[in-house]
Amino acid sequence: MNGFNFKAICLSVLLMAGTRKANAQHLKFLIPDNAIVQLAGSIGYFSVGAGYDLFKNKRGILDFNYGYVPASKGGELNIVTAKFAYKVYEIKLKDWGKLYPFNPGFFLSYTFHPELSYRFNRNRYSSDYYRWSEALRPHLSIASEIEFKGEKLIKGLGIKAVSLYTEFNTNDYYLVNYMQNTSSLTLADIFKLGIGLRLKF
Amino acid sequence: MGLWSCNNFEYSPNQVFDRNSYKDINAGNLKRLGDGRKDDTVRFILSGDTQRSRDETIRFTKKVNEMPGIDFVVVAGDITEYGVLQEMEWISRSLSKLKAPYVAVIGNHDLTSRGREAFTHMFGPLNYSFVYGGVKFVCHDTNSREHKFNGEAPNIPWLKAEMQAQEGVSNYIAISHVPPNSADFDPGQIDDYTATFAAVPGFLASLHAHSHKYNLFYPDNSGIPYFITSAMGNEEFLLIEIINHKLSFERIQF
């Protein structure tokens, strides 16, 4: 039931953000610059989100995603994520697009599940017993993105561009394991893959 | 590049299985072990707390593989640090290099997050037993703190039922993660627990890990030894041998 309520809240927030466009011009900065769909990448079997282009050069990425893992895929989990990344290089691809080959980033995911607590119960565990949060996970990411200009693809939908990205991420759990066991674990063991589609308005 | 493999698609660090997860490792390995009916020397390894010690686990498998006549290997809990699927997969990958079959027992760290579900899926039940060479090994969950000291870990009625006299069984050994001399063991259950073992004819020893330090202690006057093996990270384990209903042991460093 929690999962359902949470989904309902997310949906209403998204809908409200959309309808405010007309009557609240001064809140324009709240309107997302892109819509996102992502598969895997440790934040859901699939996730949907809203993204903002940051900075004057628009090379900063700020994404908010809601992800879902069904029980049949090892869930059931509801996950919210806030991501930050920066497009270090921008390569023009003739007149039809751009390539962003190296976008390092950082993100936080919060997983809703009865077995996952933000903090271990202090009545049963002293503060130095388990020192991590089960629900809140910090991640490091490296993504690449290829962007196609919208006019060439679909006319009249207000879509400026469509992009595809792949993103590798790892988290604190995996990094600790890796750092202490560099001969038995490889980077391919600890970096997990996700792929996504971004529509830019 | 290994990174670009479908196996690298992850839905969440908290998913409890994926399409490549091992399943029912304990049951599969016990089938391979057999019942040892004709084996008059039961020789096995007690190790534990593999947690963040994967490099050591690799060296451990090499060391154990060089030792002759090992029937099986027990990893007595805390196979993971964070109770997540990925750690269980990594440790199983290392332990699969063992020539002898191995079994895993649940530890307190393995019960954090969704570890209980991941462990059950990959290794099997938290309480289980098997018979080898006329000895019954009763593996069980003593991680009382993770069960909120609810009186169900250890599950004493289950232990009593498992230790009923049984045909083809002349001795019993209990294996669990948290020893009864630890603050993480339910203080209200200690006496009942040790008395349960003391009442079983042919009970040889209770084996544990958790403290990361070797220890041999006698919590009551029954004369039953309680062993604690050092942690994988300390590069030490116990070799235990049962011949003619007598138990002997050796601390081995690697």
Concise summary:
Chain A has four helices and nine strands.
CATH superfamily of chain B: Metallo-dependent phosphatases
Low-confidence stretches of chain B: none
CATH topology of the largest domain in chain A: Porin
Strands of the biggest beta sheet of chain B: in what spatial order? 4-5-6-7-9-8
Choose one word for the global shape of chain A.
globular
**Can you name the CATH architecture of chain B?**
4-Layer Sandwich
Rounded to the nearest angstrom, the radius of gyration of chain A is: 19 Å
Helix fraction bin of chain B: 10-25%
CATH class of chain B: Alpha Beta
Q: What does the overall shape of chain B look like?
A: globular
CATH topology-level name of chain B: Purple Acid Phosphatase, chain A, domain 2
Please report the two chains with the greatest interface, counting residues with C-beta closer than 8 angstroms to the partner's C-beta: A-B, 46 and 39 residues
Biggest β-sheet strands, sense, barrel of chain B:
6 strands, mixed
SSE string of chain B, helices as H and strands as E: HEHEHEHEEHEHEEEEE
Sequence of secondary-structure elements of chain A = HEEEEEEEHEHHE
The oligomeric state is: heterodimer
Kindly describe this structure.
Chain A has helices at residues 2-23, 150-153, 172-179, 187-190, and strands at 34-40, 46-54, 60-69, 77-86, 91-93, 97-112, 136-149, 161-171, 192-200. With 201 residues, chain A is an alpha+beta fold. Chain A folds into two domains: 1-31; 32-200, Porin. An eight-stranded antiparallel beta barrel of chain A has the order 1-2-3-4-6-7-8-9. Chain A is globular, with a radius of gyration of 19 Å. Chain B has a single domain (21-32, 40-253), classed as 4-Layer Sandwich (Purple Acid Phosphatase, chain A, domain 2), CATH 3.60.21. In chain B, the strands form two sheets. Chain B has a six-stranded mixed β-sheet, with no helix packed on it. A five-stranded mixed β-sheet of chain B has the order 3-2-1-10-11. The two termini of chain B are 34 Å apart. The A-B interface holds A 39-45, 67, 69, 73-75, 77, 79, 109, 111, 113, 115-116, 120, 124-125, 130, 132, 134, 137, 168, 171, 173-174, 176-177, 180-189, 191-194 and B 1-5, 8-18, 52-55, 57-58, 81-82, 84-87, 90, 94, 109, 112-114, 116-117, 145, 148-149.
